[in-house]
Amino acid sequence: MLGGLYMTLEVSMLSLLFATLWGSVICALRMSRRRWLRAPAGIYIELMRSLPLLVLLLVSFYIIFAASALSKVQVSVVCFSLYFGAYYAEIFRTGIAGVEKGQWEAGAALGMNKRQVFGKIVLPQALLRILPVFRTQTTSLIKATSIVGYISVMDITKAGDYIRSRTFDAFFPLLLVAAIYLILSWLFGTGLDIIQHWLTPKSHRL
Amino acid sequence: MTKRILSLILLAAGLLSCTAPQEEFKPPQSLEDLKGHTVAVTVGSSMELFLSEYPGIDLLRIGLGEIVIAVQSGQADYAMMQEVQFDANHLEEKGLKKYLSGYLKGVSGLAFRQDDTLHCNLFNRFLEEFKESGEYDRWNKDWIHSADSMALAMNPAPEEGEPYVVGITLSFPFVFLADETVSGMEIDIMNRFCAQNGLCPEYQVVEFPALIPSLTAGKIDVILSHLQITEERAQQVLFSEPYYEGAACCFGRDPDAPAPKQGLVQSFKNGVKVNLLDNDHWKILLDGLQVTLEISLFALLLAVLLGMVFCYFRMRRSRWISGFMKYFTDTIRGIPVLVILMIMFYVVFAKSHVTGTLISICSFGLFFGAGFSELFRSGMLSVDKGQWEAGAALGLHKFQVFRLIALPQALRHVVPVFKGEVISLFKNTSIVGYVAVIDLTFAGSIIRTRTFDAFFPLILVSLIYILLSRIFGHALDALERSVNKTK
């Protein structure tokens, strides 16, 4: 059970990390001024968003990475990163696009170059819009890892299944697993809430 | 910047394409030789228990349909399955070779609930007569030694009698679907038993690891899945006298097998034939699609309804009610749908004879209802308070303000997120296979257990999901436009 919890945490944390990075890359491509960069990113996002995660996981495991030396845990992480990266990219994009155009212009008027405007003016404002949605999506990611059992990764759900198949007690393992997910989502949610509180300028705090 | 991104992508692609080094192949002589290799086994099977006691073997615990694919694709080096299955499926023609055989010799019986001595005794008496009459030997010989199990004559299932729910797992030649009816070696014997005792069998496909929990939870009346009689299992269920004796074999890739030399078009044609046309597989897929759509649609309706009810209570001024609703929705949203689904199936609706489809609809309705409740609430909160006051000042009463002023504005906030949630609901239904519902994904896996073809069913199922998601997306875009029209 503890091993299962560890596995769930490992897959979640690594996927969260890589999905965020990958999401930023896709978001940068998606918002690029060059059409040939923008279009593939758009198609990629559409594709990921219209495919069930389970099907993507099976396709990755048995077809795409079948010949590669990646272990099943690595395949899961890659698969979750690819999938949630697409979602994160859209979240980042709407967050950044939500910042008024005037802010960019004001920054330029102050003599900053583009990167400075983005880092010092747009990003802090965008982050505030991004974080609440990011929090929901991250909770989804943690919960979505419950399907890795399909490719024989012993996560917490699968560990519960395993105990169930040995003790044949349906009730207790299931409720325990549910409680653990609840605590995990709550922990991650609270963590992100703290980050958000910390990022909000004092004047805006309620 | 662009260059840096491109080089990153190239680097990632390079990392992914490096393949496992080729070693010189030595065929295993005993189970000891499996050490250090990956061996695929069915989840919950006696093979899994057996091998898990051998240290150094990396077990890949997956479904039956995936075992062969795992070996073929190289995710597993070897796999274990019943010898009869290997032979009847003609797996040696698929580039596989039996290396070890005769392991785990054991007998299998029907499994009943502990207190169901009535049916157990009935079956034992039936089996005794069956054996005495000599029919048993013929049955055994016919099925085990037949080169083409599909062609064997079956005893049809009796159409009248006391309903009797039989839990099965699909594994050729024991149980398989042919022309939309369940048939196979085990079904043959079950049909005879039922016909003699005035029972009307209702076959329900269950995932192997879910068999015993389903039986003890009262979802099924008996397990017919060549369940090997073990002491551990006998503490949970009541076994009948054994009706089948078998052994497991271990197989791997055959290094001498000729590489398939098929053109792309030819292999595609072959894929269509084997995976869709043979044995009416397309009908299974179509039925699965229908179930997926059914669950998605009704769950969506239920979720919207529940979402509105939850949202109403969540926005009540009473702190007790709204506080309780907050914790309630947060709790539901904090648990994976899969776990909710299993709790509904094994705990909440355990003793009732509610179908898996209905349970799925309830679970998805509840889970997404909780999400919708928060969505609707944020939509309502986004409407400025002044709008309500302005409405009141115009002499409208509360409901009129809500309908005429607040709702149209709230909808504009709600619909874009709603669209994403609907598609996510649709895609999420792919997990209902866990509670014995044959949806699109599970239908694909049923076809895989027969054809052992990894590529075709998976890609086809993906394409159907993508297509349908796009269609839903477009329909919801139209909704979004109509909501925004007043803007």
Question: Which short descriptors sum up this protein?
Answer:
heterodimer; A: 206 residues; mainly alpha; 8 helices; 0% strand; B: 487 residues; alpha/beta; nine-stranded mixed β-sheet; two-stranded antiparallel sheet; 18 helices; 55% helix; elongated
Gist?
The complex is a heterodimer of chains A (206) and B (487). Chain A is mainly alpha-helical and 206 residues long.
Mean pLDDT of chain B: 83
User: How many β-strand runs of chain B?
Assistant: 11
Q: Report the span from N to C terminus of chain B.
A: 39 Å
Low-confidence stretches of chain A: none
Radius of gyration of chain A: 20 Å
Unreliable segments of 5+ consecutive residues of chain B? 16-22
Proportion of beta-strand residues of chain A:
under 5%
What is the assembly state of the chains in this entry? Answer: heterodimer
- How does the helix and strand content of chain B classify structurally? alpha/beta
User: What's the end-to-end separation of chain A, in Å?
Assistant: 41 Å
Gyration radius of chain B, in Å: 27 Å
Put simply, the count of helices of chain A is: 8
**Based on CA inertia axes, which overall geometry of chain B fits?**
elongated
Q: How many strands, which pairing sense, and closed or not: the largest β-sheet of chain A?
A: none
The greatest interface here is:
A-B, 53 and 61 residues
